[in-house]
Amino acid sequence: SAVISQKPSRDICQRGTSLTIQCQVDSQVTMMFWYRQQPGQSLTLIATANQGSEATYESGFVIDKFPISRPNLTFSTLTVSNMSPEDSSIYLCSVLRQGDKNIQYFGAGTRLSVL
Amino acid sequence: DAKTTQPTSMDCAEGRAANLPCNHSTISGNEYVYWYRQIHSQGPQYIIHGLKNNETNEMASLIITEDRKSSTLILPHATLRDTAVYYCIVSRSGSARQLTFGSGTQLTVLP
Question: In Å, what is the CA distance from A68 to each residue of A6, A29, A33, B50?
């Protein structure tokens, strides 16, 4: 398995501000993904973080709102920009390693509350 | 990826086997069945996956019907710590793909 460190674990933010979430993996991984889990809901994929290039966003998610960086094979960040109360969710990072039969490993998540 | 259907919730007595069903009638020949679970306030945890043969690991067993249109995850001796939402996901392996999570089954293990 992979050890994933996600920071911060939780935060309370004011409307209109931005928060950057970090995801650090203990080994090089092929793919990194960012998911959102709204209260009482299942997980929804936001984007695939591509190393050295722009992230691939799912329908309904845009780069201006959720800019993503992935400078190397073990680290990625997700920024939630210009936040509103509707952005209150758990944000999760997951990783996929080469040869792991598409088994994804998830971080513990960042619980975000926007006031 | 094929769509899956799971019961919304199930209860199980502690120490008994928990059998969680999943329907995936539109599954393709190259799609695997994956099971994950999410304990409250944690990230999802991989449990097991299979293509067409039954699989067993230290956590659970996966039984896939011969026509592959449904499967059952079996937790042989459920404990209180197994209380979680269980997700059945169908996805192609061999290529890096994101997982599509459905609503899952809330399993509650009762003392």
Answer: 14, 16, 10, 32
